[in-house]
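retry 2 of 3: previous attempt timed out while embedding zinc ion. Reduced batch size to 1 and resubmitted. Inputs unchanged:
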Amino acid sequence: MKTAILDNKIVKIVNRDLPKVGKNDVLVRMKTCGICGSDLEKIFGNYGMRSSRIGHEPAGEITEVGENVKAFSAGERVFIHHHVPCYACHYCYNDDFTMCEKYQSSNIEPSGLSEYILVPEWNVLRGGLVKLPDNVNFNQAALIEPIACCLRSINKLNLKKADKIAIFGAGSTGLIHMILTKLFGASKIVIVDINEFRLNFAKKMDPDITTINLKDKDANEFNNKVFSSVGQMGSDISIISTSNLDAFVKSIKITRRGGTVSLFGVPSKDSDLRIDLNLIYSKELKIIPSYATSEKEIHQTITLLENNIIDIEPLITHKFSLSDSFDALEYAHKAKDSMKIIITSPD
Ligand SMILES: [Zn+2]
Ligand SMILES: [Zn+2]
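retry 2 succeeded.
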């Protein structure tokens, strides 16, 4: 089978033997796998989390199940979650599933960017393999993981109807946050980026939003532009959906007193930042990081898709075949005219 490996920050496609299917394992033929900002961080940046595999947003069709597997059978269409918690540790008891030791060490074999993916017993037995409803196609399925990540971030924010939202980063997760915060009742949404293509893309998807291009705007001009859109008090919630550190600094200024900043985009490891801590204290800002997602939000996402409550497919601008994975990653990194890029496996 063809599979992608990361070799010194370059992704190569190699041929490997099919993985052996253990008694409780499931083998899936990959149909689609999304390219994520964290994949790009692993190649073009400095990723601080433990996993170094590329491709973690796969969906496909089961080709083989272990002899003890009763809940799944060959031919079924599934979403695969690569990380699965233990549900039996102090972190899990406190619903901090993504902080569970096993969550961060569990994984699929060899990765999402592979013709075949072995879903190990650990994942199969603990909700890491989920059947897709008939009306959820594989394009949508490649977006389940990032939508679920955004849902987890939003579920932590105590978002209220009519809240005013500022989103930094008009990439695919910025736009998913846009779609979801609107769905949950946001009254105003401002999206900030320096990429005109992406800002226009966001505006086309939702003409009600305000877009701000940070390029050629000084700090005061930027703040005024935000305040003229969400009101002088500032945003109730600011969502950092980029790894750009300056976005966090700016968000501190434009979030209202008592408001919330969501740290969603992955900052590079060893990111050093100079901020006025007194501003965070005196404004009583809540800073809420959100890493990855859990079973609850995956099911919430599938329900949203199954019932056509969100229209997510328009986010996919490019498809690359598995053999061209590295081109896809480079293309996504340039972000010239792309939003979500997905990898497909030949039939
Ligand atoms: Zn992802
Ligand atoms: Zn645990």
